[in-house]
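BUG-367 | component: ligand-complex export | severity: low

The export step for pyridoxal-5'-phosphate jobs runs without errors, but we want the raw record kept on the ticket for reference. Input record follows.
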Amino acid sequence: MKKFIPVGEPFISKKEEIYVLQAVRSGWVSSLGPFIKKFEKRFAKYIGSKFGLTVSNGTNALHLALVSLGIKNGDEVIVPDLSFIATANAVSYTGAKPVFVDVYPNTFCIDPNEVDKKINSKTKAIIPVHLYGHPAEMDSIMKIAKELDVWVIEDAAEAHGAEYKGKKVGSIGDIGVFSFYGNKIITTGEGGMLTLNRENIFNRAKFLKDHAMSTTDKYWHPELGFNYRMTNVQAALGMAQLERIETLIRKKRKIFEWYKEGLEGLEGIRLNPETSGMKNVFWMICLIIEERKNLSRDKVIQKLRGNSIDSRPFFKPLSSMPMYKHNKWNNPVASKASKEGLNLPSSAKLGKEEVFSICKIIRKILN
Ligand SMILES: *Cc1c(COP(=O)(O)O)cnc(C)c1O
């Protein structure tokens, strides 16, 4: 049996081992300790935001961003129909209603024209998602948000280091949200981060993240808060990853180039796009298989598996989930993409030979 090639796998080096060991040996294993502040500061600087705030995962980062902006029961928040479930669930946790809008057929990111159609007086925020590492169309989103006075939370959980017109994603909207799950661009095991510029919102998020405890009166909690803290050990891992982020992203982009070369000329397929003026970090390699008579996307996944190659289908439309399908949502582009797309092995640990061997097998399956 050939070695199984997973879709995602973290790339951990000696540096990570050293920093983590240092954190463990220091005794600062919970959420106090020097790596937390260092990681927040350095990550915010990398993104181009004034403040960074660590949290326990990306889902909590989204939830904390929403509550810190005052999103609550009765409000509506616009989200793209094609994303990971956390984008919508975080909205539901606040009591607000996620409103699902369609995406662009090429980038799979939220379509600003569709946002325009669904925005109304109840809308309090828009959450563009930089899906699979490609930036959303931020200028149009920011313009709509400004005109109608609604917040913009960028879900950049899959796009650390991606750029929109020279700006890193997560630095453009009111708050940027990141995940450091094991398969993301950089990892802390589980973890997340908020990036933002406004000090009052930063202070509000910091307060709510730690049980809403008074900063002057210990164990006085004037309102309902949360424990969304990251540990110093996680931040140590994150710090080492952050110091290597440029190498990791360069490798991701290289892997995409290898796939492109390896699949060149193959008919009826498409790979990730990269819109001009934007930088895609290719979190996941996307393969779109246009409809064929006897070969569905799921069949391709099955055949790849038979060759010890892991792949996975695109996200399913969020509006199709039992808890959201009560409304008659109609987002044909998201539905189509979710049926045609799959993610190929994308780990920064992949080598050129491995990618070429995957391409050869894809050619055999599709020809
Ligand atoms: C991973 C991810 C999240 C959630 O992050 P977790 O750390 O797994 O909670 C949110 N949004 C998107 C688009 C993601 O891919």
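Assignee comment: Attached the raw record above. The first helix runs from residue 14 to 26.
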